[in-house]
Write a structure and sequence with these properties.
Length: 865
C-alpha cells in the first residue's frame, strides 16, 4: 500500500545527478526515513548517472513510500540499451567498466531491486526496508527456516546445580543428569571446578571459582560429561543465602545453542542487604535494546560503569583498526569536550597504561603520575581499566576512576571485566554499523565533491570550493596554502570559518605564524603553531585587560579572544599532492578543546587528493590560457592608424571557446607617406594551426608592402612563403589593397582579391556593387598571375570587406550569402564606419540562433562627407 509518493524529471545534463540526489535526500528527510537516506542517495546517484550520462536521456525519479520502507524508481527513455544483469548476478562484471556499477551497488545495499522494460522506457528500481522491532520487544531474532534452527533434544533440559560456600555441589537435578551423564550421588560434595573445562576468561586471568563468588554472573563456558567430552554451555549464576545466613550459588545451565532460554534482560536480582550489592547497573543497558547511535550506547555504558563501581568518573576508548591507538569516545565526570577524540597509544611502556590489552588497577595515580594519561590533572586517584575484546581482538578499553585513593582492587576489576565482556560485542557491532554509515555518507560526499571540483577550471573558484566543502562538514575552519613554484614558501591563499565574522581575525593570526613545512615525507600531521599563537594571544589579551583595568574579554589591539578560541583546538595539515609534487597545504582546525575523529581525517585525506588534482588542473589551465591569449593577441594589430579623411572600423570574432585569434585576420597599416595598406583574409580552418598561418601572412604583408612592391607582387611572394611551409601550409583567401587619400577629398583604392569574398562598394545614393573581381586564392598553386584593380571612394561612400564567416552564416538550408549582405549594406547609407560594421554583425547574429561556428572579420572604410 503506497502511503506517499513524489516524482521529478531531470534533463540529460551532468548537473542533474546532483539535483536528483538532493531531491531524494529532501523527500526521505520529509518522510522521516533518515536511516535510509545515505543508501538511497548513493543508489540514486549511480542510476541517474546511467540514465543521463550513459543512456543520454532525461530521467524521472519516483519515490514511493509504504509501511515497510521506500521504493525508488529511475526511469529513462532508452529501453533498447540493455543492462548487464547476467554479469551482475554471476559476479563477473568488469570493475574497470563504467557500466553496471549501479547494479552492483543495488545488489549490495538494496533489500530488493529489479528492471522493468516497456516499449518506450526502462525502469531500474530498488527497495530499502526499515529495520524496526515491534513495540515492547526487548530482544528478537530474524525468522529462520526450520533447517537453520539450532539442534536440540526432544525436550530442552535446564540443569539446576547448587554450589555451597566452598564451591562444592550440593544439588544436582535430573536434567543435569541427562545433560552430563552424572548421577547426583557421583557429583554431590565435589567442587564444580572439577567438572569445568573453562580456560579462563580472555584477558582477565580469572576462572570459574571467581565467577561463583560474584553476586550475579551470566555467560558461556564448558563442562565435561561422564565420557570426558567438553559440552559448551550457557549459564546464569545467582548468589543467595538461606535463613541461617549461609551463602550458596544457584546455577541454571543449558546447552550453548539453547542460550536464548536463559539469556533474558529482565532478570530480577536477589534481595540484598548488609554489604551485598544489588545487580549491576549495566544489566539495564546490556539486556535492553541498545541506542540507535554508537555515541548514545557508549555514553550509557560509561554512566552505568561509573554507577556499578560507585566511581566519580568513567571513560571508554575505542581502538583504531590496527589496534595501535585508542580514541576517547565517551566520558562522564571528566571534561568531555577537551578529551573527546583524543588519541593515546595502546602500548606506552612500563608504568604508562601498562597495557590496554589486560585489566589494570592503580590504587593512587599520585604515586604513578602519567600511568593513565587521560586522567592527568583531573583530580582522580584510583582507577581500574579493562579491555573490550571481540574474538580475541582488542576493540577498546573501559575505565572507572575515583577521587579516593585505594578505592579499587582486583575484585572490582573482575566485575568490570565481566561487564565489559558482555557489552564488547554490542559496542563493536554499533561501531561497525556507524563505520558503514559513515562510509556510505563519505562516498556520497566524495561523489558530490568530485563533481563540483571537476566543474571548474578557475583557480580562485577551486580554492573556494575546497574550503566550502571542508567547512563545516569536516572542520570548523580551514586555510589553504599554495606553492607557486617548486622550493618556494607556502603562501596563505584562502581562509574560511563557519562564522564569517571570524575569518578576518583567523587570517590575521595565521599571517603572523610561519606556514607549515611542505616536506612531502611528513604526510598528514598535527600543526601546533595556530593553537600556540592563539594561547599566547589570549594570555597577552588577559594581561593587557588587567593592566588597563578593563573587564576581561573587552576588545584589545590584535587578535581578539574570540579568534584565539576559534583556532585553539587541534589543527592538522594535509599536503596537496598532484603529479608527485606538493602544490599546497590544507590546514583544518577545531576550536578550543575539540579534536578530530580518525574517520574524519581519513575522509579529509581522500578529499585533499581530489582537490589537489583539481587545483593543479586549474593552475595548468590558467597558465596555458594566459600563454595562448598572449600569443594570440600578438597576432592582431596593436591598434588602427588614424588616416586623415578616412573613417576606419573593424569587428573581429574568433570561433571556439578561449580563442582570440583564429583563421580570419585583418590589418590596416601605413606603407609610406600618403599611402596605407589594408588586408582581410581567411586561412583554411580555425584554431591554433590556422592562427599560425595568420601570423605569417600578416607580418609578411607589412614587410613586403614597405619594400615598395605592388599588390600583385606582395601576394605572389606571400604565396611562395605559404607553400614553403610544407605539411603545415594551408590555403588562404586574401583581399589586399592600398589606400591613397586624395587632397581634394575621397580616396583611391588599388586592390587584389585572391579567392576572397568580393569587397562591396556603397555609394552615397544607396547603390551597392562589387569593388573588385575574383582571382585565384593563395597556397594552392606555385605560379600565380595576379593583377591589380582600382576604385574611387567619394565622400559618403563605404567599402565593406568581410570574411566568409559572414556570408556563409547558415540557418538550416538558408544562407545569408552575398545578396543578403548587399541588402544589409544598402540600408547603411549615411551611417559611420562603426555603425555600418555593427549593423552587419547584428544582421549576422540574428540570421541564425546557433553560435557562430566560423571566424568572422568585418572591415569598413568610409569617406566622411
Amino acid at each position: 500500500m503506497i502511503t506517499a509518493r513524489a516524482a521529478a524529471t531531470f534533463e540529460p545534463v551532468g548537473r542533474s545527478v546532483a539535483t536528483a540526489r538532493g531531491f531524494v535526500r529532501d523527500t526521505l528527510q520529509g518522510w522521516g526515513l533518515t536511516d535510509l537516506i545515505e543508501d538511497a542517495v548513493v543508489l540514486t546517484s549511480e542510476l541517474v548517472t546511467n540514465a543521463v550520462v550513459h543512456a543520454g536521456t532525461s530521467a524521472e525519479v519516483r519515490c514511493l513510500r509504504d509501511p515497510q520502507g521506500v521504493r525508488i524508481e529511475v526511469v529513462d527513455r532508452h529501453p533498447e540499451r540493455e543492462l548487464p544483469l547476467a554479469e551482475v548476478s554471476r559476479g563477473r562484471l568488469d570493475l574497470s567498466s563504467e557500466g553496471g556499477r549501479g547494479l552492483l551497488l543495488c545488489a549490495a545495499l538494496a533489500s530488493r531491486w529489479g528492471v522493468d522494460y516497456t516499449a518506450i522506457d526502462k525502469s531500474v528500481w530498488f527497495r530499502l526496508d526499515q529495520q524496526a522491532l515491534p513495540v515492547g520487544t526487548r530482544a528478537a531474532g530474524p525468522v529462520l527456516p526450520d533447517e537453520a534452527l539450532p539442534v536440540s533434544d526432544t525436550r530442552v533440559r535446564v540443569a539446576v546445580v547448587q554450589v555451597d560456600r566452598a564451591d562444592t555441589i550440593t544439588a544436582w537435578n535430573d536434567d543435569a543428569k541427562e545433560l552430563f551423564g552424572y548421577t547426583a550421588e557421583q557429583v554431590v560434595g565435589k567442587p564444580l571446578a572439577d567438572l569445568a573445562a573453562w580456560p579462563q576468561t580472555p584477558g582477565t586471568g580469572t576462572g570459574i571459582a571467581e565467577a561463583l563468588a560474584l553476586s550475579r554472573w551470566e555467560g558461556s563456558y564448558g563442562l565435561r560429561d561422564s565420557e570426558g567430552r567438553t559440552i559448551p554451555v550457557y549459564a546464569c549464576h545467582l548468589r543467595v543465602r538461606d535463613a541461617h545466613g549461609e551463602p550458596s550459588t544457584v546455577c541454571l545451565i543449558v546447552r550453548d545453542q539453547e542460550r536464548a532460554v536463559l539469556q533474558s534482560p529482565s532478570r530480577v536480582p536477589g534481595t540484598a542487604s548488609g554489604d551485598d550489592r544489588p545487580g549491576d547497573p549495566l544489566d539495564a543497558l546490556i539486556g535492553s535494546p541498545p541506542p540507535d547511535d554508537l555515541d548514545g550506547l557508549l555514553q550509557r555504558t560509561v554512566e552505568r560503569a561509573r554507577d556499578m563501581l560507585d566511581g566519580d568518573a568513567a571513560f571508554l576508548l575505542l581502538a583504531t583498526d590496527d589496534e595501535t591507538e585508542l580514541e576517547v569516545r565517551a566520558t562522564t565526570g571528566l571534561p568531555a569536550a577537551r578529551q573527546r577524540f583524543a588519541r593515546v597509544p595502546v602500548e606506552t611502556g612500563s608504568g604508562r597504561y601498562g597495557s590496554a590489552r589486560m585489566p589494570s588497577v592503580h590504587e593512587d595515580l599520585a604515586i604513578a603520575p602519567g600511568a593513565v594519561p587521560l586522567l592527568s590533572g583531573t583530580g582522580m586517584h584510583a582507577v581500574v581499566t579493562v579491555p573490550l575484546k571481540v574474538e580475541g581482538r582488542l576493540t577498546g578499553s573501559l575505565g572507572v576512576a575515583s577521587e579516593t585513593p585505594g578505592r579499587y582492587s582486583n575484585e572490582e576489576a573482575l566485575r568490570l571485566q565481566f561487564a565489559a565482556d558482555r557489552i564488547a560485542l554490542a559496542v563493536e557491532s554499533a561501531r561497525l554499523t556507524e563505520l558503514e554509515r559513515l562510509r556510505r555518507g563519505s562516498l556520497a560526499f566524495l561523489v558530490e565533491a568530485s563533481e563540483l571540483l571537476a566543474g571548474t577550471l578557475d583557480r580562485n573558484q577551486t580554492l573556494a570550493l575546497m574550503a566550502q566543502m571542508t567547512v563545516p562538514t569536516l572542520a570548523t575552519w580551514c586555510a589553504v596554502y599554495t606553492i607557486h613554484e617548486f622550493g618556494s614558501e607556502p603562501v596563505l591563499s584562502y581562509v574560511l570559518h563557519e562564522d564569517e565574522e571570524r575569518i578576518d581575525g583567523i587570517k590575521a593570526l595565521l599571517e603572523r605564524v610561519d606556514p607549515p613545512d611542505p616536506d612531502i615525507t611528513l604526510g598528514v600531521r598535527v600543526w601546533t603553531a595556530p593553537a600556540d599563537a592563539a594561547h599566547d594571544t589570549a594570555l597577552r589579551s588577559s594581561l593587557r585587560s588587567l593592566a588597563l583595568g578593563r573587564p576581561h574579554g573587552a576588545r584589545t589591539p590584535g587578535t581578539s579572544l574570540t579568534t584565539a578560541s576559534a583556532v585553539g583546538g587541534e589543527t592538522v595539515v594535509l599536503p596537496l599532492i598532484a603529479r608527485n609534487r606538493v602544490i599546497g597545504l590544507l590546514a583544518l582546525g577545531k576550536p578550543t578543546e575539540e579534536r578530530f575523529r580518525q574517520d574524519i581525517l581519513e575522509l579529509a585525506e581522500d578529499l585533499s587528493r581530489r582537490a589537489a588534482l583539481a587545483l593543479d588542473n586549474a593552475r595548468l589551465y590558467s597558465e596555458r590560457t594566459a600563454i595562448s591569449q598572449s600569443l594570440q593577441r600578438s597576432l592582431l594589430p596593436p591598434e588602427l592608424p588614424d588616416i586623415d579623411g578616412v573613417d576606419v572600423e573593424v569587428i573581429y570574432r574568433a570561433a571556439g571557446e578561449g580563442n582570440e585569434v583564429g583563421g580570419d585576420f585583418y590589418d590596416v597599416f601605413p606603407i609610406r607617406e600618403g599611402a596605407y595598406g589594408f588586408a582581410i583574409g581567411d586561412v583554411c580552418g580555425t584554431g591554433p594551426l590556422a592562427a599560425a598561418v595568420t601570423g605569417l601572412a600578416r607580418h609578411a604583408l607589412r614587410l613586403l608592402a614597405r619594400e615598395g612592391l605592388g599588390g600583385p607582387a606582395v601576394l605572389e611572394r606571400l604565396n611562395a612563403a605559404i607553400l614553403e611551409e610544407g605539411d603545415r601550409s594551408r590555403f588562404l583567401t586574401l583581399l589586399y589593397g592600398e589606400l591613397w587619400p586624395q587632397p581634394e577629398g575621397g580616396a583611391l583604392l588599388k586592390m587584389v582579391c585572391a579567392g576572397h569574398p568580393l569587397p562591396l562598394h556603397l555609394t552615397k545614393d544607396g547603390t551597392v556593387a562589387p569593388a573588385a573581381s575574383p582571382q585565384p586564392l593563395l597556397g594552392v598553386i606555385e605560379d600565380l598571375e595576379l593583377y591589380e584593380q582600382t576604385a574611387m571612394l567619394n565622400p559618403g561612400d563605404v567599402l565593406l570587406c568581410v570574411t566568409d564567416g559572414v556570408t556563409e552564416r547558415r540557418e538550416g538550408t538558408r544562407m545569408l550569402g552575398d545578396d543578403g549582405l548587399a541588402d544589409v549594406l544598402s540600408s547603411c547609407t549615411g551611417l559611420t564606419a562603426g555603425a555600418v560594421a555593427a549593423r552587419v554583425l547584428r544582421a549576422v547574429e540574428r540570421f541564425a540562433s546557433d553560435a557562430p561556428s566560423d571566424d568572422m572579420a568585418i572591415l569598413t572604410l568610409r569617406i566622411p562627407e
